[in-house]
């Protein structure tokens, strides 16, 4: 065997070994991981003390023959190019476990690691409501603002971590995912068999999914069907649009009520594309009232109605990125950083997010006449508070300065940040009911779905 072939074989075996290790970890999260940091509660929000973490991923095909600094600068929006270069020089970014130069060209099989001082975004500090708890599944009414699984600026502030750390549910498996800002029915598998069975039912379209949303204006009468393909505009922003040649997507809509300015609409997705309901409502010209992506002026005067792009795609992405720039959340200099290190080091982050935010890491996840309807009855009866079982959290901890770690190279440590406002923590989209062969789970209707509710 030639040296080149032997080198390729060793690289393949190394990747296979890593994949096996991750599959073991995918079965659940250990107490060691849960113990990396702790929560504290402040102003009604659940917050996480910063901690050290190493992101790990393998080079994607689109990265081949591109320099390490080019990939980080273009693919990840946590820091600017200068700061990434500094991290490479200091050995915080490694390739195949080795310190390398910024101009290294990436190739197939390369493993990239980035050690950071990880800060997480706050989420709503409410309790998680349990709809049903069986030997096979745990079904919850997911609060808005909390992602289902670790991603981006959320890890310990994700559903699976909170349920594991504070409720004692280990080895939960995501069967499908709701957007971070979406609330409602979320089913988590407790066993491989139950997870596979439900995944197969969803894949075979045996599951009826019913959502409710509040949209701008008076939605048309009758059932409105949308059959428009969706394509991703920007991978690291998760921004989608209607586009020919995209992924097949179908959704049905029906107005439930109208309060004079906005409508409550029943949404039935027949496929499971990312942001499908949100993009199809934008396409119809009735975007969700408080949708930060698809009811934005960034799309132009018509806000993306009819799938028409009134601005260049790059300009749309740039405008939405700017709207979500982390700089707008900066409150001022962090006195604790100055107290420890004597001043700022002029390390500046450019936009929200972090390096390798959607990539594999050691905890990589495998990877979704209406007057007579049940929803209307729930709303009219005023039954907004779920009747389901609620678990008690441990005593809510207050901020403890002694538990706060501060890193000299961490740009986020240098600043204090404003708390997110209510509008930043909720989207008027709610997974109301999931129903499959022999089972049906329903969450309580959200407060904003009441007929007479006003924004």
TrEMBL record:
InterPro entries from the UniProt entry: PsdUridine_synth_cat_dom_sf, PsdUridine_synth_RluA-like_CS, PsdUridine_synth_RluC/D, PsdUridine_synth_RsuA/RluA, RluA_PseudoU_synthase
One GO molecular-function entry: pseudouridine synthase activity
Keyword RNA-binding tagged: yes
Protein's UniProt keywords contain Acetylation: no
Pfam families, per database record: PseudoU_synth_2
Pseudouridine synthase RsuA/RluA-like domain location: 136-282
Enzyme Commission no: 5.4.99.-
Active site annotation, chain numbering: 179
Keywords: Isomerase, RNA-binding
CDD domains: PseudoU_synth_ScRIB2 (cd02557)
Catalytic activity: a uridine in RNA = a pseudouridine in RNA
GO biological process per UniProt: enzyme-directed rRNA pseudouridine synthesis
Family: Belongs to the pseudouridine synthase RluA family.
PANTHER family: MITOCHONDRIAL RNA PSEUDOURIDINE SYNTHASE, PSEUDOURIDYLATE SYNTHASE RPUSD2
Purpose: Responsible for synthesis of pseudouridine from uracil.
Name of the protein in question: Pseudouridine synthase
Lineage, opening ranks: Eukaryota, Metazoa, Spiralia, Lophotrochozoa, Mollusca
């Amino acid at each position: 065997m030639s040296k080149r072939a032997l080198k390729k074989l060793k690289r393949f075996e190394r990747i296979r070994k890593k994949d096996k290790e991750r599959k073991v970890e995918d079965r659940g999260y250990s107490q060691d991981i849960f113990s990396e940091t702790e929560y504290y509660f402040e102003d009604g929000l659940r917050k996480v003390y910063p901690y050290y973490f190493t992101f790990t991923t393998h080079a994607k095909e689109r990265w081949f023959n591109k320099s390490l600094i080019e990939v980080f600068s273009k693919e990840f929006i946590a820091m600017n190019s200068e700061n990434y270069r500094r991290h490479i020089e200091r050995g915080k970014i490694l390739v195949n476990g080795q310190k390398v130069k910024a101009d290294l060209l990436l190739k197939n099989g390369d493993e990239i690691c980035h050690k950071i001082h990880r800060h997480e975004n706050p989420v709503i500090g409410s309790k998680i409501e349990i709809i049903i708890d069986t030997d096979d599944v745990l079904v919850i009414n997911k609060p808005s603002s909390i992602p289902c699984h670790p991603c981006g600026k959320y890890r310990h502030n994700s559903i699976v971590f909170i349920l594991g750390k504070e409720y004692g549910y280990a080895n939960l498996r995501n069967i499908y995912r709701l957007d971070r800002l979406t609330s409602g029915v979320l089913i988590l598998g407790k066993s491989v068999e139950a997870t596979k069975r439900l995944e197969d039912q969803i894949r075979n379209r045996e599951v009826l999914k019913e959502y409710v949303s509040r949209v701008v204006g008076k939605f048309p009468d009758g059932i409105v069907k949308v059959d428009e393909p969706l394509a991703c505009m920007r991978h690291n922003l998760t921004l989608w649009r209607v586009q020919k040649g995209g992924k097949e997507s179908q959704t049905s809509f029906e107005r439930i009520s109208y309060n004079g300015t906005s409508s409550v609409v029943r949404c039935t997705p027949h496929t499971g594309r990312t942001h499908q309901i949100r993009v199809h409502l934008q396409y119809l010209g009735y975007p969700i009232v408080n949708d930060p992506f698809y009811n934005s002026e960034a799309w132009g005067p018509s806000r993306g109605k009819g799938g028409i792009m009134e601005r260049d795609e790059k300009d749309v992405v740039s405008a939405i990125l700017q709207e979500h720039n982390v700089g707008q959340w900066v409150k001022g200099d962090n006195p604790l950083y100055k107290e420890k290190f004597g001043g700022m080091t002029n390390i500046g982050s450019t936009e929200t997010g972090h390096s390798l935010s959607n990539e594999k890491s050691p905890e990589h996840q495998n990877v979704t006449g209406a007057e007579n309807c049940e929803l209307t009855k729930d709303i009219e009866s005023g039954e907004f508070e779920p009747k389901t079982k609620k678990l008690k959290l441990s005593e809510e901890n207050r901020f403890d300065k002694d538990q706060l770690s501060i890193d000299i190279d961490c740009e986020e440590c240098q600043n204090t940040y404003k708390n997110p406002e209510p509008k930043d923590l909720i989207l008027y989209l709610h997974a109301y009911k999931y129903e499959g062969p022999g089972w049906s789970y329903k969450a309580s209707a959200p407060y904003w779905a009441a007929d007479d509710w006003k924004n």
